[in-house]
Every structure is written in C-alpha cells, then in structure tokens.
Design a protein that fits this description.
Layout (H helix, E strand, L loop, with lengths): L1 H26 L2 H8 L3 H15 L18
Helix pairs in contact: 1-2, 1-3, 2-3
C-alpha cells in the first residue's frame, strides 16, 4: 500500500512540473506563469528547478523571456 501512495505522489509531482513548464513556455516569464497558475513566483521557481535537475537540462534564462533550449522542444 505504501508503494502505491509513493507512486501517486511521484506522478503528481511530475504533473506539476509539466504544468509549470507549459505555463512558462506559453507566457515566456516566470511571473506571468506564476500568476496563471495561481502560485507564488518563488514556488514556481522551485518547480522549475526540480524539473531541470530531474531532466538534467536548463531553460535559457539569459533573455528577457525564458526560452527552452533545443532539448526541450
């Protein structure tokens, strides 16, 4: 039973990461994505950092708008 709960939690976190990525991709900025998802900007940054660590790839944060690197597309 505990294994099932852990798997559900892992899936939920992965879905949150994907929702975060989608919002950032569509809006182009962390603050706009956070507003769209009704979460704080620091919370959104944590989701993004977790996703980047999990995948091993980072978004290009050098421009005014966040742009996915080639690997994300």
């Amino acid at each position: 039973m505990y294994v099932c709960i852990i798997k559900i939690i892992e899936v939920r976190l992965d879905l949150e990461w994907l929702r975060t990525f989608k919002a950032i991709y569509e809006t182009g900025t962390l603050s706009a994505a956070a507003q769209e998802l009704f979460i704080s900007q620091p919370g959104l940054s944590l989701h993004l950092n977790s996703l980047e660590v999990f995948t091993g790839y980072k978004l290009d944060r050098s421009a005014r708008k966040m742009v996915p690197t080639e690997i994300w597309i």
